[in-house]
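The freezer alarm interrupted the setup, so I double-checked each line after restarting. Inputs confirmed:
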Amino acid sequence: MPGDSLNVNINAGGVAKNTFDAIVIGSGISGGWAAKELCEKGLKTLVLERGKDVVHLKDYPTATKNPWDFEHRGEIPINTAKENPILSKCYAYYEGSQHFFVKDKEHPYVQEKPFDWIRGYQVGGKSLLWARATQRWSKYDFEGPGRDGFAVEWPVTYDEMAPWYSHVELFAGISGNKDGLDTMPDGEFLPPWELNCVEKEIQEKINSTYTDRRSIIGRCAHLTKPNQIHLDQGRQQCQARTLCERGCPFGGYFSSNASTLPWAAKTGNLTLRPDSVVHSIIYDEQKGKATGVRVIDAHTKEATEYFAKVIFVNAACLNSNLILLNSTSNRFPNGFGNDNGLLGKFVAFHNYRGTLTASYDGHLDQYYYTRKPTGAMLPNFRNVHKQETDFLRGYMMHYSAGRGRGDASNKEDIGGAFKDAISEAGGWGVFMMMQGETIPKETNHVRLSKDVKDEWGIPQLITSVGYDDNDEKLLKDFLEQGEEMLTKVGCKNIQTNDSKQAPGLDIHEMGGVRMGKDPKTSMLDKWNAFHNCKNVFVTDGAAMVSTSTQNPSLTFMAFTARAANHAVEELKKGNI
Amino acid sequence: MNRRDALSRVALLFGGSIIGAEAFLSGCKTATKYGASMNFTPDDIAYLNEIAETILPATNTPGAKEAKVGEFMTVMVKDCYEEKDQKIFMEGMGKLDEACQKKNSKSFMESSPAERHDFLVALDKEAKDYQKSKKAEDPSHYFTMMKQLTLTGYFTSEPGATKALRYVAVPGRYEGCIPYKKGDKAWATS
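Predicted 3D structure, all chains:
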């Protein structure tokens, strides 16, 4: 057993001191929610975070810097970029945010197929860095796998999830417009952001040209108008700075650091332990359940065990897979709960390869005041009610418009007239991107390396996740439809682009520990608990059966809150 | 006829036997004066500042020199450039002055603002033509590098962002549609 080789240290005070009611592995977007719900319900909760502590307000060193305060004005120096070829592909990685990203060399993994694994190891995880788009999944998303047979049936329905979406939306603060679309259900919204003049005109043209497509303002986790519950968290209105990935000194967007973790701490029930690398989950054969976790100190490498009645695994999709694969015992020799051999399989992600750019004539007498943290969304319109195309599922579109700089009609591109001309606003440009659903497949998987370990003695993860023919067809359709739509709304100079980026760079990896109705074909039950070990819950992206075309984080939050409340009920009943 | 040509003729007349003529010639070769090493000298920085100022001079808003663009260029070349691009930039510093010498019969620093302007307009055209005809994997023209760094450095500097452009660090609100008239400044950040 892996745990046997560890020199386990039970701190002075013995088992009792290391015993809690609940343990949450990970402090990111879902771990923060688990902590909040469990602490609020009175459970003494230990949150384990493998990275450093990041305290809201205190640990945002770049949050208020101006562009000129950065030595390289945002650019990553070339030696650093070369040391981080994977990370350097990430759109959010720059001089102002680099301290919140995992460096390639420090946490290696094995790419059997190209996979850009973007990680944030710190308290708050990637909730500091996310793009903050928050749409409810629709009934079509939850019904899809069962209807079309491309994956096991979801064990929950949209209607079961709806109250939990409301629960997390009210607390997190989600801005949006009630659009009445069943492909993207309305939520508990703060006021929406406003589209700019050109985005609005494109929206109107799309909505009047197509009967199956509705363009709407993006929905995002920003406090456009905080309610009392947000002020009680110590958060304030979003100031439209759009420097989010540095950490927000106003708490204007939702992160674990600004919201759920301090809320959990206020109950007096939270113990947060940064620098705690979880090695594995401890399973007790006699009790027939998990009793705790093995932790390795990130710096001293000393091993410690912590115990609890209930364990939440929220390490982010692939790291949750990794911990579970590494949690072997006599009962589970192939990884935690892995009786059916499916642990680590059916990993899926979002297809982000397609983008379009275009110009838009006119509106030179219109501009916008400062910056908004979202754009326009166009919910999926492919295969919604029935299978209609030669590919499965579909994609949503994000688009935005803005004015560039400068008048291109200068005779000379040197001198005072040139400078003044490029100090003015230029013509309008339009950008459009896809967010395509991918099909979970058994062959798209992660597993543990038998050869290489990390610095903490934990086997490295092997990623074997790639595109398939469905992804290519979906991409082609997006580019065709995108071009047609931009043409019809009057865009010029339309360029289509396939970035050919590897999976992973979407940072929407999901699956590997999927939910389902049948223990033979899935790992988790409808409450995100293992079919065969009811006191361990996985509520991050790892639990997803399919990926939908919406952004996933809001759904992880809703599942987590729902599962945590279920766990508390089960504890009260003495069932776990 | 410039000084180099004159001396060469003198050397020719004397059968190439003027002692120290080569040393004298190379001593006057402004081509080696700038960009000798990545430890940029104050002269290097002053020279780059004047190139930047010629590209983006003070008008009713500050120029590139006030934005310390020369120094910014040296930081970026040192820290953010590939080695092969560093080489082209460093050699380019000499080439630019050499080309100026050839055109104006005086160094860039000795040239008047109007002479510098006309010279860089021609060099900009040359660089653009080169960029258009070069293969994708070929390195950029040195002046393209200088100009790009000048634009980036200026518009992200405090004078550039706050005076040539509009910069609001903490807007507090967003409005989707406001009027714009020709001459209004663009936003410094998007």
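Quick read of the result. Chain B has two domains: 1-32, 34-164.
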